[in-house]
Amino acid sequence: MAKTLSFPILILCLLTFSTSDASVQDFCVADLSLPEGPEGYPCKKKVTADDFAHGGLAAPGNTSNLIKAAVTPAFAAQFPGVNGLGLSIARLDLAPGGVIPMHTHPAGNELLVVTQGTICAGFISSANAVYLKTLSKGDIMVFPQGLLHYQLNVGKGEAQAFVSFSSQDPGLQILDFALFANDLPTDLVSATTFLDPAQIKKLKGVLGGTN
């Protein structure tokens, strides 16, 4: 008479069967010559140590612009080694008064580390509760995925920070640009935001929007 397998042995056999044909891959360095898909870039065939190092965050970004700030990303498109790993990083440079305007990252949480200066940062929850802090060198703050948040240099000198994300490409939507840097009709913006049409047209003129 055949003996019945004990429950632990049965589970072990099932696990072995289910994983025996599974391919194990340590990494998937991005092949930037091919288009990016929903799961990231296809894997590069020939990989070197250079794919896992990146020097693009060493130099400060250009803050001579409207927001007096610069974001230098090291996402999969700039740093192929993070492809498929679920993480990335960027550098923030803010001149005095510089700001990273209200924005969201729909695909990742964000962790900010201040390395120079004084930054006022905050986010708004889905219940419209406001959480803000003034951060100095060495301070950190987290911004949950998808929530509106900002960073503002409130010090007298340059400010610098590094932000890491729980995604190789967290995505970005800046609220001001979404409203005023495109051809969304002014009357529609006014109806949905309660802003004065004249003010909307002025902001569209500043940010390059039309209509």
From TrEMBL:
CDD domains: cupin_OxOx (cd02241)
Pfam families, alphabetized: Cupin_1
Domain of life: Eukaryota
Tagged with keyword Manganese: yes
Signal peptide start and end residues: 1-22
Subcellular location: Secreted, Extracellular space, Apoplast
Disulfide bond annotation, renumbered to this chain: C28-C43
Membership in a protein family: Belongs to the germin family.
Protein name: Germin-like protein
Originating organism: Kalanchoe fedtschenkoi (Lavender scallops)
